Amino acid sequence: MSASDEKPIGELLAECASRCLALVEKNELDTIPSDEFGGLFATLVRVLAEKAQSGSIPALTSGNTVITATDGAIACTAVLEAAGIELFELSAWQALTDVGSRRRASPAAHSGAK
């Protein structure tokens, strides 16, 4: 497939999100391959970190899709464990910087402005 035939990344991300959410709603999680999902999730975490460091913190919602408190706690626990970060280390990081925080960041970060 040539570069001109490729779907724009936004379309691919939206399609992936929609298809995964549909599988969650149908309780068909076993059809999502764990290795590929883990690789995608790790890549998305890396992209989020890079965007946050560049001053563009994306909202982690889209349309009717939101992260519940339980989903957030479970995902954060998995990310912290995968990165080998203890909770007290995260607290120290947050005390030193606002990188990655939409609440503590400047208003420009919310809009994606640099």
Word description of this protein:
With 114 residues, the chain is mostly helical. The protein has a domain at 33-111. The chain has 5 helices and no strands. The longest helix has 20 residues, at 34-53. The relative contact order is 0.09.
Number of strands: 0
Q: Which word captures the global form?
A: globular
What's the story with the biggest beta sheet? Answer: none
**Spans of at least 5 consecutive residues with low confidence:** none
As a percent range, the share of strand residues is: under 5%
Approximate helicity band: 55-70%
Please state the oligomeric state of the protein chains shown: single chain
Mean pLDDT value: 86
Instruction: Report the end-to-end length measured between terminal Cα atoms.
Output: 34 Å
Which descriptors apply to this entry?
114 residues, mainly alpha, 5 helices, 59% helix
Topology, pairings included?
Layout (H helix, E strand, L loop, with lengths): L8 H17 L8 H20 L15 H15 L3 H10 L10 H5 L3
Write a brief caption for the model.
This protein is an all-alpha fold.
